[in-house]
Amino acid sequence: MEVIIQADSEQASLLAARLVSRIIKEKEKPVIGLATGSTPLLLYRFLVKMHREEGLDFSRSITFNLDEYVGLAPEHPASFHHFMWKNLFSQVNIKPENVHIPDGLASDMEAYCRQYEEDIKAAGGLDIQILGLGTDGHIGFNEPSSSLSSDTRIKTLTDQTRKDNAIFFEAEENVPYHAITMGIGTILQARICLLMAFGKKKARAVSRAVEGPVTSMVPASALQLHPRAIMLLDKEAAFKLDQIDYYHWAYEHKPEWQKF
Questions:
Q1: pTM above 0.70, yes or no
Q2: Does residue 82 have an active-site annotation?
Q3: φ and ψ of 24, to 5 deg
Q4: Taking the CB of residue 205, how many other CB atoms lie within 10 A of it?
Q5: What is the CATH number of domain 2-254?
Q6: Is 76 designated active site?
Q7: 234 is catalytic
Q8: Domain boundaries along the sequence of the chain
Q9: pLDDT for 26-84, tens place per residue?
Q10: Which one from 51, 81, 82, 138 is the annotated catalytic residue?
Q11: Is 67 among the catalytic positions?
Q12: Strands across the sheet with 31-34, in order?
């Protein structure tokens, strides 16, 4: 696992955008796994800026989102469909048919989840998966105790997750209790996993995910098993790490060809 610590979320998000843009430029058909929430917003703003000012071309890109609430229509203002089209897709030249976001209204959820897995495989697999981090260490909606080999499925959200996500709804009681999410096993099949975490409230989860044991009780710790997992952190999210000096030293001494 590579840990990269930047002064603030803006600098970390710019690095993330550079990595994503490189993949988009280098791959014939880049397949990108996307996340929602407040963490990737700056990343998406940088990608939109690169599209407008540098001509970053999304027309060949295929995207798969991590998750969606069960029971929310795509046009619901708190749905991840709405989030993605508002903050990224409507501002770049991606083809609508290349956008994949889980359907929270699917009539047969089990069959739909199996098909979502097949669609990812048919696209050639994920070149990169963007991830945020829950305060309890979850990735996607894979809550603590999730199987580390799980596929796309329905998960029941914890009380803490519902409280954390209440800011996107008018009240906590409006937050759904269930979501479709890519499984941890699905995420680990991506060629690159890029997790971003910002702010002091994420510091404990970051420490447990990076330096703690690999355990289903901290789903993000499974990234320790990935051959190319990158943690992009601001200094506040990183302050509980025991090996923080080494992470700074390793990043400063990377060979040029590894930088982005």
A1: yes
A2: no
A3: -60, -40
A4: 24
A5: 3.40.50.1360
A6: no
A7: no
A8: 2-254
A9: 999 999 999 999 999 999 999 999 999 999 999 999 999 999 999 999 999 999 999 99
A10: 138
A11: yes
A12: 2-6, 229-234, 193-197, 128-131, 31-34, 62-65, 99-100
